[in-house]
């Protein structure tokens, strides 16, 4: 498994707006390995489906 520490970038404009949940994720982190060694969430990418599901769970938890 890859690095599970993921990075979220936020827009300054929305940081003081608690009703707006937002974030931009980088490729860093995630459980995908090999050629997909990243936070891959594309189901049609050829990556292993369990890795994609785990990556999506990480994003969901991070966003609350």
Description:
- The model has no long low-confidence stretch (mean pLDDT 90).
- The chain has 64 residues and is mainly α.
- It starts with 7 loop residues before the first strand and ends with a helix.
- The chain has one domain.
- It has a two-stranded antiparallel sheet.
- It is built from two helices and two strands; from the N terminus they run βαβα.
- The chain has helices at 12-15, 49-63; strands at 8-9, 24-25.
Briefly, what is this?
The protein has helices at residues 12-15, 49-63, and strands at residues 8-9, 24-25. It has 64 residues and is mainly α.
How would a textbook summarize the main sheet?
A: 2 strands, antiparallel
Termini separation = 23 Å
Share of helix among residues? Answer: 25-40%
* H/E element order: EHEH
Number of helices: 2
The number of domains: 1
Going by helix content, strand content and strand pairing, the class is mainly alpha
- The Rg value, from CA coordinates, equals 13 Å
Global outline: elongated
Which regions are unreliable across 5 or more consecutive residues at pLDDT < 50? none
Mean pLDDT comes to: 90
Estimate what percentage of residues fall within beta strands. Answer: 5-15%
Q: Give the spatial strand order of the biggest sheet.
A: 1-2
Question: How many beta-strand segments?
Answer: 2
């Amino acid at each position: 498994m890859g690095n599970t520490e993921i990075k979220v970038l936020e827009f300054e404009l929305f940081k003081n707006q608690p009703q707006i949940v937002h974030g931009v994720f980088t490729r860093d982190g995630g459980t995908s390995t090999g050629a997909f060694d990243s936070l891959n969430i594309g189901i049609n990418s050829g990556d292993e489906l369990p890795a994609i599901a785990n990556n999506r769970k990480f994003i969901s938890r991070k966003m609350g």
